[in-house]
Design a protein that fits this description.
Two copies of one chain form a homodimer. By secondary structure, chain A is α+β, with helices and mostly antiparallel strands. Chain A is 32% helix and 23% strand. A six-stranded mixed sheet of chain A has the order 13-12-11-14-10-15. Chain A has a five-stranded mixed sheet with strand order 3-9-8-7-6, with helices on both faces. In chain A, a hairpin with a 2-residue loop joins strand 12 and strand 13. In chain A, helix 1 crosses helix 2 and helix 2 runs parallel beside helix 3. Chains A and B meet through helix 8, helix 9, strand 13 and helix 10 of A and helix 8, helix 9, strand 13 and helix 10 of B.
Amino acid sequence: MSVVGPKGFIAAGVAAGLKTSGGLDVALVVNQGPNNAVAAVFTTNRCLANPILWSKQVIAGGQASAIVLNSGGANCYTGAQGFQTTHATAEKVAELTGFPAAEIVVCSTGLIGEQLDRPKLLSGVTSAFESLSESGGQDAAHAIMTTDTVVKLGTRSSTEGWTLGGMAKGAGMLAPGLATMLVVITTDAVLNSEQLDTALRAATRVSFDRLDSDGCMSTNDQVTLMSSGASQKTPDLGEFTASLTELCKELALKLLDDAEGSSHNIHITTEGAKTEEDALEVSRAVARNNLFKAAIFGKDPNWGRILAAVGTTSAEFDPYGIDVSINSILISSKGEPAEDRSKVDLSGKEVQVVIDLHAGNLSATVVTNDLTHSYVEENSAYSS
Amino acid sequence: MSVVGPKGFIAAGVAAGLKTSGGLDVALVVNQGPNNAVAAVFTTNRCLANPILWSKQVIAGGQASAIVLNSGGANCYTGAQGFQTTHATAEKVAELTGFPAAEIVVCSTGLIGEQLDRPKLLSGVTSAFESLSESGGQDAAHAIMTTDTVVKLGTRSSTEGWTLGGMAKGAGMLAPGLATMLVVITTDAVLNSEQLDTALRAATRVSFDRLDSDGCMSTNDQVTLMSSGASQKTPDLGEFTASLTELCKELALKLLDDAEGSSHNIHITTEGAKTEEDALEVSRAVARNNLFKAAIFGKDPNWGRILAAVGTTSAEFDPYGIDVSINSILISSKGEPAEDRSKVDLSGKEVQVVIDLHAGNLSATVVTNDLTHSYVEENSAYSS
């Protein structure tokens, strides 16, 4: 399954020695066609890694026949030498596959500011090429992991005969624009690059873009959608987009569930908003509030911290007209305490916060994690 | 010292039983004149506590003869009953002092969403009134503490014969607009409320507003400046503002140094900016980056996380033209690693981060803390 689920794709994941752990660290996914349409969305961070600079050029052409990804180093802020490493990686894949280098997407993830070991990386690319197979999806997904504890895979199939498959990595620095991560999604549906781009932007806007684990945006991350057309089926674009959106949401929730050191998955829904932007701004403000996130870790349904976060936004609302529920218990209504906060059960991993602004009928959900000792530990004891 | 340093002020702090610990929790500061000019700046949070709603009206009148403050409850989101408690508090001070209730400023701090015990509070106000003295500044400063571990006092004296004195509380939720906290500053200089307002806004803009301990903005906090005119000296407004600014900076650094669970005071200076707003936006983005803050806790000079935060801003810069220094070691220059990161010594409590955008000649400094296990512990294990 995963990226090799759809017809026309082969993949591999190998250990090139970039990770000090010796784990898998180079992934290669090759599109055998007949088509090679591609689309991608990129981090909106203005400090961009070398692979992002390269891949943006590839994607602009609308065609990609392979994507090569490495963990063990972000190749960001590594200067001209770093860009040459990215370029050499694409050239190596081109040499091995016979496709033009300008159709090879490159992604990297890991520590910023350190050069990748180019000989090791290129040797890994060769090994990956030699290992390519229709069953290589699992290894490829393993090879892009950094602090992830599990591989993240997903698939969707249409009764019309086309399929979507995806793999994702990311366990921190997950914040929009574009919730940062590396994601590769493949499909054998027949779609051109403009159609892929339309579908991908619609899907990521309500999935990865609404995942905000720690408010931190990466320099490296990218969601790439490749089409082989091997099913020879041309989907209805609306149906395809709906299916892609489902897959993106599934992968986003898998990223959330594996976020560094979290003990709760918090779904923050703002409803009754005048605009969707208002709903999003309010949900995001709460998702980024460290005091609220620490309270949830402590199983404390601290609605005061929620309202204090809501109050920092420019959304339309009456501060004394807001309702707040946690796990279906209405704990604050219209500026006053409502049901007893002790009724709120935060012992489970999933937490549903619903904020009703009573200012309209639009809504948006942002998902985040709690702020835990383990988060601090993972992000202070190890460079990443 | 503190608020009773300037002539014309008496103060007290008493235990009214609002804090479960039994500690001091009601403070009263009375201005004996001859003048009673006042100015204040308030949280920009749109969810405002009852004492803020009340005090804004008092400050609009430009005159205040007393300020009464309580810890042990924020009196925020407590509905009409909560507002009546604030009103009753002002009325009680008015009854005891003979000043109009409309000239009594009220501040509260503590947990949101719980009613204050009105009888206990009013009884505490009476006790405080009976305890008023020229040596009550220390007790008053104690009575406004919440999770603070030390009282925060400061003073400035002019050779011209006028004096400033201040007390502050706050150890979390310290973020602008207005770095949130309770601060009372008194002066015996002769100044009207417009002059006080001008000076206070200028001073807080570069002091409390540049303190961002955890990005969280409170519903309750306020900086109040009261003038008795008892020195009979009319200062030059520029000199007064400079002195007030120094005092505000001193108090802000004392808040920083006592921030919940921090192990480093981080001073983030952005220089070489095209505008001061750009410099401020960049410094603030870094100050709010959890990954960077956790890295500093781990004594890891992780400049990649700094640049990733810088890249989220709209400031003018070339992403490959930025220099980053930590504690005077230039660790990244123009998009590449520079000096060896192991040279950076993060064993001390003070950390100086300097980001040079090379886009102009303006600068701004924001101070923050690291993200530590103790921060998570304090904000998860205890409701506040």
